């Protein structure tokens, strides 16, 4: 390490007090479906206390926000969260201290879409899929949501089954029709995914494809990056940096994975990767009041309790954001320019290895929040009450 | 290429006539569940004509055998194929020209097994799982089945959730108890799988773990190799060669994959890999009347028709077996010893690129089978008849 | 399979005679470095007869073309192929029946570039790297080459070592400076690579990054797709289809791989993948006299003989192109639109499993070429002559 | 979280003071080759101050031990570290406060081994390779080394090039011959590697193969686990747990990777994985005075300085060992048995997120070591002195 660099680091180390204000504005959207049952193709295990209605899901999301102050909005999934009166649903959310957020479309559970939706060869099927998005846009007007998120399950299982090129052309046309329907201030965010449920090809498999489409659509079309939707070994923080540079990173779907799209708790599988991602977010202007980047969770709690699973998740994002903000970026830039590999790496690791939990606990208490939201929830008996109260009815779920 | 080698090749090339007899003995077991509906966690699409009962599944399997002569047995999955009278079921199969084969246990769909079955910390759960296997062994006595196949879904989703080591110890004990219950001539085959449905660790994730357990159990415990259950890039034919060398390759679950355990039609994703696998099978003594290796399919036909999907699958195995038998192994050995890389590779590729389909069509006709079983099935109107007849009742399926 | 579809297939099957003319125009560029020694970081094994000069490399390339008629051009790598007089080198090539093709730059073997070249933080280093490309453009003027190919080894080994975002900005600026220097009719093709020699991040790791850069540069900037430069499981034919759709597929670097960038003989690791790639090339207008797509090899013959390794490679591309051209695209489109999964897949596989080798052998003889170029080469004694003649001097190589 | 569990955790949390003594015994062997130049097939960059002799490498290793107290032994690689008098070399090491450790054989850099060494079809080649190992054993007698480590580069690049089965049989025979030559107290540790330098198949590709061989050899044959030698996604800590259970984990080669065998600084790519590995080491009895498991580094410092690269590495292992020792295993077991997924995971993560660095700094000072070895080294001017002194001669390196 260069002697000058050493001095620079000693003088400029970032302290928790320096970043406390920045943390205050953090908001992480919860997905309504995280509170319902989920599982694999082999089995969906039910859990006592699982919500039966969208209102109960919202109430569960509100509990997460109440204990953490981190989750002021909840995303809807249509038709899973379909109701007659979305304005009333918005008021219900408001009464629980929440707002309704992103509207997620679904074109993967109707028999009609077995061979595709926005990419289907049959114009009637495409039209039906487009109209479903029109319906979502209409809901957004009623809920005041900003983002229409499209994750497309379209793809094929066997070489030759579909015409890769023709599907792209039809996709572009369908997306344009949807985009043109957006109101002022509304955005279309297009998610990509490496594979599943299709096993040979996926119509939006990578960030390049999503980027090419949203670039063609216009300014209010953006890419959604789901942290679990990449090929093994992919450097996700590079994609974050690139999309921020290109002005096209619209939102995150946070979760974590060891193998495929495991949808585990964000930060659970590779906390250092989450740190690197958030470092690039901060570096690239993706964090803070002026950033267009929306933070969301997209997870499945197959074997763990769902409300504390969501609490753990937003805390993980918060803790790692704190570590990313603690990076001494001036010292880092100096080490990078000096070609000091170990010095630069050491500056980054220093922030990662800093235990921010005591400072965050104090910070929470100073804002009227419980110091340890996980423990507060466990001690509150809330889970046991839900299990006792929510008897009868059909538990919410997703998937087949 | 060495001049002597060239002569050798020219003189000794293997012809289809040389291998026709070997093909006659080939048998590929069909899984009863391939005829039911299947899908992903996102959606299971239904198909007209899907069986409602195990008898209808057996009838469908019989159709595959009728047209191909390749599939004389059908595997059962308990409890999916549970009946009151297995002897009667065996007679039903016999009336359709089939025998009942491998019995597959299932310890992944009862709420009890949410945190494990044969590996569970709770002795009562383990005992229940062991007793399920006793039931399977009892069924095997009634059906005359040779193999009890155990695919274990046990695993965990989060680091720390389970004690990796303790789970292995309990697994060993549970397996021993099951093994000790086997009758004469019965075998236990232990399947391994890289991941899914567990996403952090799987209790039998690789061939090494399966091998260590079956070696400890005894002579009648063998490894089952499912071609879709490996890490990306794994050289599967090496494992085939190794297990044959160690005398522990009990059976195959054939299917194919691009990404994870996609369960696509065998040979569909990487036909050359299937060829290499079968080349090692032949090389290592895993093919033929004296071999202990059982060939089975384990596939899901999520978007394609199921009966022709199975026909296509057994034909793929047959065609590729023919190519593997066509390898001029004497010439290959000479080229290998000479360090003639391109020559040796060329000998292998020559067999792979040989179009065996016309010879196989003639061979089939000479044995009273349709030359083109896929076409025969399509033209027979069988699928349409099933769709018309099988109305009402609950279609068979698997998974959640 | 639908009855109408069946009829369509029977009527319209494509025959070899229908595609013979299309094959006539095929040209695959050879890399000069394929004839030099190569290896891994562990060892570069030398081979008798390896060229000592660029002229000997060109002579070897000419031998490949003489026997196959497939390889009329040879790519240069600067500085490995540096000479005083490129016009003279071009005449030398012409005398051997070849033209000089793509010029490949090299910014990865000078100590200056240890921490980057076009992306380096130090302006002086960037300028040196840019000027190296100016030199390459100057050479292109002298050789009449069309393409300047940039494969960038830039990247970092440790998180924090470099500023991902700043490196992209500097890369964009450097590329623009190079692009502005291109003469009329010259193109810049930007290759991407997943990893190696950098192990944490690579500055152009995926097609999306390459596409974003070349789109910003202008019409004569294109993407180069090296078939070995992707994450495990990547659907490469999808990228081919997408880049053709976007008008940005400039060239291929063909090779094959089982694991990383193995640089094996094209088609050796996964012949079916090569077939699928070429099917999309044909489908998307990437093959034929009007296509802007250049076909090149980029391989290393670490353990096999180099000239026959290149012969095998161009034959593999030719054979697979023939199979791709044999796909009955009209029938395929009909099956795809009908949702006939097995039918559509079957049409594709039918072409793949067709043994085109006898037809190609006859086709070659009709054009004055040896029916079996591999055998012709082996029998010619050429390799032995080279080994005897090329004694003394330093064998060409690449890498460290 | 269960209330009783909460109490248990509060009562029993492990403190640094509880583990300090256990840390005292930790020893991590350094590889002599880490101090020489290394690189990729593209380029080996030289560094001022690189050792020219094995003595200079040992002096560099001694510096690492002087500053950390963690690295009392250094591994040799034959023939890279060949000397006339190993007893004298041992005394030289002793004078520098070190002992000579594992002897690593090398059968991948002689032209003879182009197509294999212990697996070669030619008995003369196999004999030469076996005799090289006899030489290594002889050296071990002179140096007092315990372990002969065999990493075998044997493998093939093309399907058909070699006979997978025959190679295994020859390997088994060669290993037996070597094993039989071992003296009392000497061990053979057999390393496995997924791929590289061979790109189609590797003769010892996975732990199962290594385990099968060492089990056949006898008690003093063990498996060496190199953390960079696995397929993408492999759960390495599971293998650790399994090998400890089977009594066959002989040693670790520590390093880290993002893609292939990147040989980066241990803990640099995925610190959480290193933590999980060390947790299983501790859990399974692999740490402490009675454990047969040897800890080694096997890394390449391609772009960073080598001595501080090794200091950083041993510190990373030490810090992560401390975190692993801090896991409250009693509480963890209780949470695991209760099926408390989030609770159990939380107990593990609590240890991982604990910042052990201040305690370790104090612990070092109490033992006469610098609190911050990285800073001490940087401030010492040692690197600059080496660069000034080590002028002339050929820098040590490895690879081609």
UniProtKB/TrEMBL annotation, chains A, B, C, D:
Coiled-coil region: none
GO MF entry, a single one: L-rhamnose isomerase activity
Highest taxon above the source species: Bacteria
Domain Xylose isomerase-like TIM barrel: 84-241
Gene Ontology BP, a term: rhamnose catabolic process
Region of interest (Disordered), ranges: 374-400
Protein name as catalogued: L-rhamnose isomerase / sugar isomerase
Taxonomic classification: Bacteria, Bacillati, Actinomycetota, Actinomycetes, Propionibacteriales
């Amino acid at each position: 390490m260069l002697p000058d660099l050493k001095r620079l680091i000693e003088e400029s180390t970032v302290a928790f007090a320096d970043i406390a204000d920045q943390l205050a504005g953090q908001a992480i959207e919860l997905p309504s479906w995280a509170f319902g049952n989920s599982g694999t193709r082999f089995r969906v295990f039910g859990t006592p206390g699982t919500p039966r209605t969208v209102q109960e899901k919202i109430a569960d999301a509100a509990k997460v926000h109440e204990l953490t102050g981190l989750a002021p909005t909840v995303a809807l999934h249509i038709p899973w969260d379909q109701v007659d009166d979305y304005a009333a649903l918005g008021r219900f959310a408001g009464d629980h201290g929440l707002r309704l957020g992103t509207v997620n479309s679904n074109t993967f559970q109707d028999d009609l879409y077995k061979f595709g939706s926005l990419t289907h060869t049959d114009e009637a099927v495409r039209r039906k899929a487009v109209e479903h998005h029109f319906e979502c846009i209409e809901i957004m007007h009623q809920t005041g949501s900003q983002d229409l998120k499209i994750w497309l399950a379209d793809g094929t299982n066997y070489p030759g089954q579909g015409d890769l090129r023709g599907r792209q052309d039809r996709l572009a046309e369908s997306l344009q029709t949807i985009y043109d329907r957006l109101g002022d201030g509304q955005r279309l965010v297009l998610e990509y995914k490496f594979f599943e449920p299709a096993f040979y090809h996926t119509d939006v498999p990578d960030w390049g494809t999503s980027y090419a489409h949203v670039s063609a659509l216009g300014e209010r079309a953006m890419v959604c990056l789901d942290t679990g939707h990449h090929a093994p070994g992919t450097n996700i923080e590079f994609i974050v940096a690139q999309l921020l540079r290109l002005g096209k990173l619209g939102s995150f779907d946070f979760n974590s994975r060891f193998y495929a799209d495991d949808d585990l708790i964000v930060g659970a599988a590779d906390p250092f990767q989450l740190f690197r991602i958030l470092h690039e977010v901060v570096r690239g202007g993706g964090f803070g009041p002026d950033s267009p980047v929306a933070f969301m969770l997209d997870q499945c709690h197959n074997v763990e309790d769902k409300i504390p699973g969501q609490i753990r998740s937003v805390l993980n994002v918060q803790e790692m954001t704190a570590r990313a903000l603690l990076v001494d970026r001036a010292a880092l830039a100096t080490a990078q320019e000096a070609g000091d590999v170990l010095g630069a790496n050491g500056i980054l690791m220093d922030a990662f290895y800093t235990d921010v939990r005591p400072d965050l606990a104090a910070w929470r208490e100073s804002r009227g929040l419980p110091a340890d939201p996980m423990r507060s929830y466990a001690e509150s008996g809330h889970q046991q009450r839900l299990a006792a109260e929510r008897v009868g009815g059909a538990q919410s779920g997703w998937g087949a």
